[in-house]
Protein 1
Amino acid sequence: MSEEHIDIQDPYDETQGELRARAMRDSLEQFDLDEEDLALLDEDFDYGDEIEDEFGLPVLAVIGRPNVGKSTLVNRIIGRREAVVQDTPGVTRDRVSYPADWAGRRFTLVDTGGWEIDVKGIDRSVAEQAEIAVDLADAVLFVVDATVGMTDTDERIVSMLRRSGKPVVLAANKVDSAMQEAEAAYLWSLGMGEPYAISALHGRGTGDLLDAVMAVLPTESAVASALPEGGPRRVALIGRPNVGKSSLLNALAGAERVVVNELAGTTRDPVDELIELDGEKWWFVDTAGIRRKMHRTTGADYYASIRTQAALEKAELALILFDASEPLTEQDIRVVQQAVDAGRAIVIVNNKWDMVDEERQAQLKAELERELVQVSWAPRINLSAKTTWHINRLTRAMETALDSWETRIPTGRLNAFLGELVAAHPHPLRGGKQPRILFATQVSNMPPRFVIFTTGFLDPGYRRFIERRLREDFGFEGSPIQISVRVRERRRR
């Protein structure tokens, strides 16, 4: 198969191309087409789903010491099991936002990690994130374990909340029956007003609690800004544990937005952050590291893996991070394949470049060419999240990948391209027969998906050849391409 390049863009005539495509479409009537085929051919082009973002709404922060049931209450309020919950303290570490509504009013609910006194390391970082959540909220929901009663930590939280000046609603959790309501009454001594006796696990009393929250929560947020029309693009930071996803998010945000620790698997819940780069706003989503054998993962890490997959499905683009200082692993390759299978635009980021010498650079280049041949079309950026070196190169790479992801090739141009391609490089004979391409159409973008109608099976090698030439002539840098072949026989008269 000759490698001479076919340039059909200059001589292509749009009017002639459309007429030719229409004639090829009409010729399909001679072949047996099922209802699904006709639906694909007659359906208007799918430009992808509109992504709605919840932002600019009043913000309610959920605060309390570890293991009082904050994430359970969050799940109860939003009506689904979204936040990771486990019967051990310290499962939640970052501040995580969720859209919620009550009595016709929408608001943003922020789950936080447990606040503790005089802690160090990762626990100190968790407590700091909880304090930031209070500063960036319009009101606070203070959760206390009624079965334990008031503790020194609760009193310190009260002092912190009073300094903030934010309206506070007190929730006395784990009151599972009327017999335990007396325990909640003791919490009047905290001086934070009426303690609302609730059971986050069973839903008892949460309606009255939310009514009280709505009474103090403003209708317009004083801390959250409105999104531009259409909403920012969503970018998921994915990779195996400890490759620097959270560090990169903090570097892009210019602040300690998420907890960073040498401990692998620090992040558990996906964390959304609105960040402005080069005058344009983006939603960046920090995710938990994708582990090698998810079916063997248990507890909080298992649910964190599920949340990561869900965050990837909601995103438009995946920034796949590698630790450039270490050899590529099977785990890294699996992460790449996961993003490709999800059909997301892709940019590969080699992080920790400040720890890479010349010998390792050559090794990494060879590893990428050998192990990631299936995504050779993805842009690659070398950077250091720790030193912020080259992070300014991300914007252009992300825009390129997303433009490719949204590309639509007119049907006339697509069929003209395939006609020239087949004329120069026909499909090899198989059993004395040669499959013929009847018609092709792009049925969707985000990612680009093509359906080709043929008279016979196309070899996988020839499909890859078509994909490669599509990329050479139309770009698609950073975007996966899906090609489906439908073999149809001529209708018998």
Protein 2
Amino acid sequence: MTTPDISSPTTPATRRWWTLGTVAIAQLMVVLDATVVNIALPAAQADLGFSDGDRQWVVTAYSLAFGSLLLLGGRLSDLIGRKLAFLIGLVGFAAASLLGGLAVSFEMLVAARALQGVFAALLAPTALAVLTTTFTIPRERSRAFGVFGAIAGAGGAVGLLLGGFLTEQFDWRWNLTINVFFAAIAFVLALVFVPAATRQGPRPHLDIPGTLLASAGLFALVFGFSRAESDGWDAPLTWGSLVASAVLLVAFVIWQRVTRHPLLPLPVVVDRNRGASFLSVMITGAGMFGVFLFVTYYFQLSLAYTPMQTGFAFLPMIVMLVIAAQLSTNLLLPRLGPKILVPAGMLLAATAMMLFTRLDVDSAYLDALPALLTLGFGMGTIMPAAIQTATLGVDRRYAGVSSAMVNTSQQVGGSIGTALLNTLAATALADYVAANQPASDAVLADAAVHSYTVAYWWSAAFFAGGAIIAAFLFRRKRFSVASAFHSESTEAPALAH
């Protein structure tokens, strides 16, 4: 006798919603950790005494480990079981966070951040895979992915809010150790509400060559863009890493075509709707992460906001994002499908970027509010629709690795966007100062706002291009959760979840 599949509609509804709460805590912990530490960096630097040049490694260590190991983490969740992978991810992430909170040196802090990234790479795709295989009833699935998409889109802003509060009211170390409490709650809930299931058929194999190629390729990609941000695009380490990444990832694709046990079965990616979803998440990540960075700079440097005030300034955007996420997944996506909804969200985000370009040194918060609200509605329209479509109809054997592709797309997009926008903004700032000598305080203030404006215009271009790509790639047929899962259920699963 086997245990029920976790996707079974016979699972009590209350239990499924508790599962969603458990997954939501884990996802929020992973997403906000990409930004919550940023606000704490000045205080950590003063406490541990590391240089400005070393500061970036506190952020980069996390993104390198996270981005390069996501595909492996997703596949491991398919192989060892979602519940076990989820619990291991929670314990490991909590332990790494505690290590970072207790750091007595720069090296210890960086090591802890890298370990956080390692376990986040296991936790993030597993959380989404649990959600994917738990909610198969169309109406419930829409609601669940609305919540998940809202977290994925707003997590960065929530990190700024929480980071500002903890840094000002307590200590920078709480930005890391707070994860221990989140993880403990999620661990207890997971023991009760994340079902385990028996395996059917032979144990699958792990694609070792594919794992090495993918991990090395993604590492080189994220590392190359991080070096471009600090060293410039013409630095040998920058372009050398990007070239190496291209070679390794091409070799990975070739290997996946010929191996019997691929790490990433190519049908997961080449499906037109899923491919469009992955690209949409990547483009959104490129625009979103860069914007959070420059809007944060504007609030803190131009408007002289404290870290906590900066976090609260993003609150209207978060509220609008949550509203839009529920509206889009419950009402609009079933009726309109991703072909209309995702491009519409992209256009809203592009509009928000153009509204941000109107800000100057004399602007007030109310001048930025329309852009924040528009951006929130756009993100809430894009992310749940793209994430739900990306995981819809995937063979349940590959739910983990498919979920990993969603996270990988967002991480790679964020790395590309941050590097590109930082480079463009830095160039714009230098050119403005050079053209407006002498470099008085007023000139420097105007130059900073000018550099943000350049970044906003480029972000608008990202989203406008994303709208065109999404409109072209997504299929025209109506979005149907029920039909997707019906077709999936006709396949003989080799692995029960």
Protein 3
Amino acid sequence: MSNGRVYIVGAGCGDFDLITMRGAEYIRHCDVLVYDSLIDVSLLGFAPETAEKICVGKRSGRHSEKQENINEILVEKAREGKTVVRLKGGDPFVFGRGGEEIEALKSADIPFDIVPGISSSIAVPELAGIPVTHRNLSRSVHIITGHTAQDTLPENIKKCAETDGTLVFLMGLRNLPDIVENLIRNGKSEDTPVAVVSNGACAKNQAVRGTLSTICKNVKSAEVVPPAVIVAGKTAKFDFAPTITRPLKNVSITVTGTRKLSDKLGKMLTLSGADVKRHDLLKVIEYHDNEVFDNAINGIDGYDYVVLTSMNGAEIFMSRLRKLKKDIRSFANVKFAVIGSGTAAVLEKYGIFADCIPNVYTTRELGILLAKTVKSGKKVLILRAENGSPELTRILADNNIDFDDVKTYDIQLEKKQDNSVVDTDFITFASASGVNTFFDGGATISDRTSVVCIGEITAEALESHGVNSFKIAKTKDTDGILETIIKEVTLKEG
């Protein structure tokens, strides 16, 4: 098979939105995604669902693939004719071993390209309000590894101590006492300002300041954890930290649901400053060989209403139309009914505007609205998940409304975390199936964790598992969840 190609992409140094537009675009079109542990998992959601995703570790203190094995993976996948993205934290050429991977690709005659990333050596101090250069104060910056392959300090530490520029040590937290000792011994003043920034470009960032004489004690007292960047020099005394704060700064949130929803909500929460964790991801299984579904679409002129109860259902419906080459003009005389604004928004992307939306976004209220709206002799087509609420069809049947209930997809568990305890500030649930999956796996919610959910059906599922304290998002979509959490945080702070 002809060679594929490899893109060496820098992911940036923290949250997903610090990747370049070019890097994100390559991820969207890859066949294989080979990634490090330090990247924001939201970036995985950029890749096609069909893409193979391979984690190769590369995190301090944890098991990771040997560099030689990573090189072999890149070459092997490219030789299969695949488009491979090698996603690396920070920048590939700043202690990222990108050069070693490119040497392997060149030896194997594999075409490659490089996408720079925002390096933690500059961005992490910057986000903590520390400039690595400053006019008339620091005219150079020196980026130094905090440990070598032999877990020792670089041999040129003496020359580093002699420079007047800013010193930035990466991967050096464990060796901080040795770094301090060597800098002082080789001429740096004990009063030299020092800052240690942990998780610098993430929600849970931490900056500890001091001097060469005090920084070790300060770091130990603050219980700083890796990854961390060490800045030593005159500029480390500055505090230019941003004064515009995001509404969910220092707020931790656990997100449950499908990967698509989790990625969308997770990105929204991250942009608002939250520290986001994911739990019990669900996956949407579309019924591809679905003769009943296809027959319904091909015979759409026999229906007066099409009912869609979720965003997933709406997307699958539109995808099926394209596969069957069904023109939306076929629906000229068909009305659309949906539960909420999120589902309506999906249809609007394709130029279809919902005719019926209940004021309260529940299956029951949609059923009541249809019972009032659908006239005698009219026929309804319901397109929804395998385990959709029976309340909708019961209401329609009780009102003698003719309908076909067609199952177009199923929700199944993708990743499960049995017997875990969620101890974040908030946890979100977007469906009853998500609630049941969470508790049936033995997971529990700590007393301090506030629960936010979408819709009355999800709320009923929570109550069935003994959760009686929760907030229901005003709108049945990710915007509603975000607004609810921001409101709750604002009330607590006020």
Protein 4
Amino acid sequence: MNIREAKEEIIRTIKAYTAVDEDDQPVIPISAQRPLLLMGPPGIGKTAVMEQASKACGVGLLSYTITHHTRQSAVGLPELVHRTYGEKEYTVTQYTMSEIIGSVYEYMERTGHKKGILFIDEINCVSETLAPTILQFLQFKTFGTHKVPDGWIIAAAGNPSEYNASVRELDMAALDRVRLIHVEADFGVWETYAQKRQVHPAILSYLAMHPESFYRVELTREKRQFVTARGWEDLSRTLKEYERQELQVTDVFMEEFLRCPQIAADFSTYYRLYQATAGAWKIPEYLKGTLTAKERAALLEQWKNAGAEERCMAVRHLLAAASRWMSDLGRESRYLKREKEVLEQLVMAAGTRTSAEFFADREQARRIKKEHGILESWEEKLEIHVDRELKDCLLGRQMTGQQTSEQIRKEQAGLEAKREELVRALTRTTEDLKSVFGEDLELADWLGGIREQGDYEWCGFNASGYDPLMIEKRLEQQVKRQMAEMEEHYETDDRI
């Protein structure tokens, strides 16, 4: 299955395994809760999908890479204790708590999560001395003599032997104690994820034209080449920062993330073309509607006569600009909404605390949440921004609560005007693309990409009338990809 299907199965498993009856006992007994084992090539997103599933279910997640552990750290250290059996006292050996199990309890205390996932990565790469312990862990949910706490389920991940020389094949006894899920690379699924994560548009544009370059692994004695989903996403983050600081992007830079020289060189060439067209086409000006009628007509004519790669590139340029616009306005909307909420809280607390004390308490609460690992980075940025804006009004400019509330209302009204301008721009662009490309794949990619944006619902742009088109064209694209893969497969077989 693909990574999206794996995520859905993980979510269903969490719901089933954490369900309790009227006596607060697990509906599925702990002994019958087979751990999930995700088996798939490296860099495909096994760890990331586990994080997404745990957040979706509102449970904790504690990850461990088992290769870093010895038998002592996993099981615990032996210690001598005295026990009385009958009327005689004996000295016996017991084990201290496993570092892994202890970390689960620490995590529960730190975060408040009573339910969660203990995720063991690279489980089939353990040392020979630790292998029996892993079998015990899978069967009895224990390390040494200490159990995984109630409410916590076990999941694991591993790489097939062809991708890792240190892999130990799991025997039948181990496999009979897990629910094995084979995960395969699927660009279509990753593309949806990547659009939401705002992966660099040049990468999305390139892979839309060259999906065969999304994932490739060739590990032989003569050749060690690989390109993974992790590599593309890491490249995206660093590439954006290079652009922000106007740092030089070289071919060598690309090869540091894309460990296949051919793909790295091909994308490097494509990236330079992508950057060149971004300036030549004046995408921000087009989207904002500030081009002259002559400039706009010339640009649309150029796109109409362009080849498939340039047409795809144009759509990705437009999506990137629209995404930034939507994201900026969506963030401003969330900031204003939160400012209004916090201002109302401050007004209610006016009789017991000064404004300065109120903001000091909020800062202290953030610090505590951050120390305990339960403050998301986006949440921290939001709250810091809100405090800064409100403190500037109330403490800096000595505005009253009523005056501050009125200012927020005016800013919200201004934001609504900006939102309407955005919707007009998206509508105009949709009609232009339809007139230039017709109801073809480019239009489907544009509309599909817009709907994948995180602030699509807030924006209010209605693309629902084009749903059948998007479905039809995306299915058509999927079939073409499958046919290309089949042709490549048969060509490979012929060569062999």
